[in-house]
Amino acid sequence: MSSSPYQGEIVQAIMELSGMIQSMRTEFGEGIGDLKKDVSVLKEDVCILKEDVNTIKEDMKQMGEKVEMIDAKFEVLNQSLLTTQAEVHRLKRA
């Protein structure tokens, strides 16, 4: 079996391609590792955001309850004012 005049070049090209493939696999693996880390960080951030949203919802609920209480107090004050005005009006007529 005789060797081809290009056999050395073919072997060299195969070795270079093999090296390039190995390098690409390594880079791909590192890229996947980086992506997994980024996804993990994003998941943690999402959890923190969910907690913050829940805190804000609870704060809004409490604020709503305080507004209702203030509205009720204003209503009592308004009724008291009307009663006082009526009493003053009655006393003026007396």
SSE pattern, N- to C-terminal: H
User: What characteristic shape results from the CA principal axes?
Assistant: rod-shaped
Strand content: under 5%
Gap from first CA to last CA? 137 Å
Discrete helix count:
1
Brief account:
This protein is mainly alpha-helical. It has one helix at 7-93. The longest helix is centred in the middle third of the chain and has 87 residues, at 7-93.
What labels describe this entry?
94 residues; mainly alpha; 1 helix; 93% helix
Can you describe what's shown?
With 94 residues, the chain is an all-alpha fold. The chain has 1 helix and no strands. The relative contact order is 0.04. The model has no long low-confidence stretch (mean pLDDT 93).
Secondary structure elements and their pairing?
Elements: H1 7-93
